[in-house]
């Protein structure tokens, strides 16, 4: 049989069965025996069935097309109370990370309730006042949706150098988290940043900071908080226990952040907790 295309043999020779000639050839009134006619019809029908069964180009392209992207999640308006120390106190140069969040989330609200020098025990004492907003007129009070907690630096900086204790700090933070959850708020816990200047190997406060941060991170797994944002490694560079010089408010200030440091913290908070904000 000649190669390249399907042929049909009859008394008149070989017949090419391709394209438009297929139907006309199969239906041509040849003088054939019944047996040969049946064989020819079976061949034609079988060839046509193969052609119909083969995938069309459009079907193949549709199969290769990427799946439809998931619909974007609806955005929401956050009303956040941030409790902390001088890093959150806007009266002493802190809280600028909240200003950065306001730029990224213009329809949301981020209130700074930081007080310079406070330890977690002081924050625990005033958490109810912060959330109840008793210092405001009733008409000016808002219903907070989230509590952001950044505290513990002053606990460690004022504690023992050689035997720092973090159990009380953990208890205070746990009480703050629980109080907010009981009031129906979601809790965003922030780890301690690198702070201060440690005094050699005998200064155990750096290790205590890492232990406390590991405990804060584990609070999400235990269900005590809704989100955890770890900022410690983001603000350190050569020495993991010191605030990177790039982010210091002043060269000798190893605790407070400059504008770049606040932006780093705002970026992390926006990425981890408030990415869908309005």
Proportion of residues in extended strands: 5-15%
Strand order of the largest sheet: 4-3-5-6-7
Major sheet characteristics: 5 strands, parallel
Continuous helix count: 9
- The N- to C-terminal Cα distance equals 74 Å
Low-confidence stretches: 19-32, 47-53
**Could you give the order of the helices and strands?**
EEHHHEHEHEHHEHEH
Strand tally: 7
Helical amount: 25-40%
Characterise this structure:
With 278 residues, the protein is an alpha/beta fold. 39% of the residues lie in helices and 12% in strands. The protein is built from nine helices and seven strands, in the order ββαααβαβαβααβαβα. The strands form two sheets. The protein has a five-stranded parallel β-sheet, with helices on both faces. The chain has a two-stranded antiparallel ribbon with strand order 1-2. A hairpin with a 2-residue loop joins β1 and β2 (13-16). α4 packs across α9. The protein starts with 6 loop residues before the first strand and ends in a 6-residue tail after the last helix.
């Amino acid at each position: 049989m000649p190669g390249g295309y399907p042929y049909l043999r009859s008394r008149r020779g070989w017949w090419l069965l391709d394209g438009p000639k297929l139907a006309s050839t199969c239906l041509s009134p040849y003088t054939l025996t019944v047996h040969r006619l049946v064989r020819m019809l079976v061949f034609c029908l079988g060839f046509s069935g193969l052609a119909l069964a083969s995938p069309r180009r459009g079907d193949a392209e549709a199969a290769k097309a990427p799946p439809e992207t998931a619909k974007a999640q609806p955005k929401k308006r956050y009303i956040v109370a941030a409790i902390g120390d001088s890093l959150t106190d806007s009266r002493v140069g802190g809280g600028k990370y909240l200003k950065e969040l306001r730029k990224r989330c213009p329809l949301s609200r981020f209130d700074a309730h930081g007080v310079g020098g406070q330890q977690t025990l002081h924050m625990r004492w005033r958490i109810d006042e912060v959330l109840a907003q008793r210092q405001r007129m009733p008409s000016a009070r808002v219903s907070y949706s989230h509590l952001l907690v950044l505290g513990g630096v002053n606990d460690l900086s004022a504690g023992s150098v050689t035997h720092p204790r973090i159990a009380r700090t953990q208890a205070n933070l746990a009480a703050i988290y629980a109080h907010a959850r009981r009031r129906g708020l979601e809790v965003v816990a922030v780890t301690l940043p690198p702070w201060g200047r440690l005094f050699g190997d005998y200064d155990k406060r750096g290790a205590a900071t890492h232990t406390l941060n590991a405990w804060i991170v584990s609070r999400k797994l235990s269900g005590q908080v809704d989100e955890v944002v770890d900022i410690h490694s983001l603000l350190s560079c050569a020495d993991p226990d010191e605030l990177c010089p790039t982010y210091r408010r002043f060269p000798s200030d190893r605790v407070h952040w400059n504008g770049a440091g606040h932006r780093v913290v705002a970026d992390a908070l926006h990425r981890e907790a408030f990415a869908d904000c309005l």
